[in-house]
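I hope you will forgive my troubling you with a question about protein structure. I am sending you one protein, given as its amino acid sequence and as whole-number tokens for its backbone shapes. Thank you for your consideration; the sequence and its tokens are set out here:
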Amino acid sequence: MNFDHFFAASRDKTVTAGLVGAGQFGASLINQAQHMPLLDVPFLCDLDLALAKKAFLDAGVAEEDIFIAESASEARRAIEQGKKIITEDYRLICDLPADIIVEATGQPEAAASIAYLALTNGYHVAMVTKEADIVVGPYLSRIAAQAGRFITPVDGDQPSLLIGLMSWAKLLGLDILAAGKSSEYDFIYHPDKEVVSWRGHEKHLPGFSDIWAMGGDMPACLAARAEMLAGFPQRTVPDLCEMGIVCNHTGLLPDAETFHAPHARVGEVANVFIPQDRGGILSGKSKVDVFNCLRRADEQSFAGGVYVVVDCVGTESWKILGEKGIPMSRDGKAGLLYNPSHLLGVEAPVSLLSTVLLGKPSGATELAHHVDLHARTTRAWKKGEVLAITDHHHHEVDGLEPLLRKATLANKDAPLPYYMAAGQQLACDVPAGKLITREMTIEPSNSTLFRLRDEMDGQIG
């Protein structure tokens, strides 16, 4: 595709975006916008003003061109003077001269409030905060439609990139057997030392070379790899969250509540993610799943990349493609197509421009509520304990297991979505092996996330 054609009619226009959240994603978006005539990001909100200022400075903005705004009128005047605005108060977006608000706080409560405020004040929204999207995304999409606006996922993150890859495959008439992503970090095998490393952690594994090649017994090999690598995390909350968003946009469903999450080399994926009656591990076709990419240090990373496994009709065509390097199943009847990288805010502008200038968001225009991310206890909890996040990078609560399950209403005796449960205090003892339900927690007061979820469930119910 030639992207010049898509925006040729808009060469004299500039899309103005307000950004909330100066983390890695937001900072990379700020930097990229400095190189794009079609996009301006003059407004950045973050509770850490020093971090917000640094994002602009690192992008090449002169310090004298950065203004700290404490009111909407100050912000408007400064923007009219060509200044870049930083503020701690996201409510200043209410009267901002902008087309789209990029929500990138990573905090589900804040994200729900910011997205709702933006949509009800006439802005499009780019939802980077997946933690809110998995809880109330379908409802925010409905609110956007009622306001004549869109809420979009963004390229640079896996849900949008996978939705794009799937839509491309569907356009070509390819039958999708499986779709998903690799986990965020590769498992790297160092054969000279008999060591596997993950995020800088190493484990000496004598005999791992025996299962490096899959051989003829795939289930036995996958089981042996899982056993030997059991000391490393096999699944993370963000993996399930991201794929849950894809489920709500596309209608594909997971094959297992925690995913199969096998350890597989890239060339093996087309053998693994096919139906069991064809020699794979899936109960049927059109399933969403995650794999842990296993590779040597000198091989291409797949960390966080997205993939589809497609049925290969037209044997001769796919035989030729296999010879050109497309990873194929052993029987030549399934092929792996993938995008091994996600570029955060560097490529997010494509979604912003498409939404504002073309009226075409990166995701579905009408979301359905197919799945929820729930939480199950892996230990006994006592009344009064807080379900506190213990690993902020992976949003993990030690003692809870994330599950991607069929969508339910989040009423008092039903499972509570993971990101509504995280951070709440328990109202009772909870034994191991139980789903966290709403009545087990002390509900926060004045929560926009809870309110929006109740409104969403009320419309469904």
Observations:
- The chain has three domains: 3-156+345-358, 160-341, 371-460.
- The mean pLDDT is 95.
- The first helix runs from residue 3 to 6.
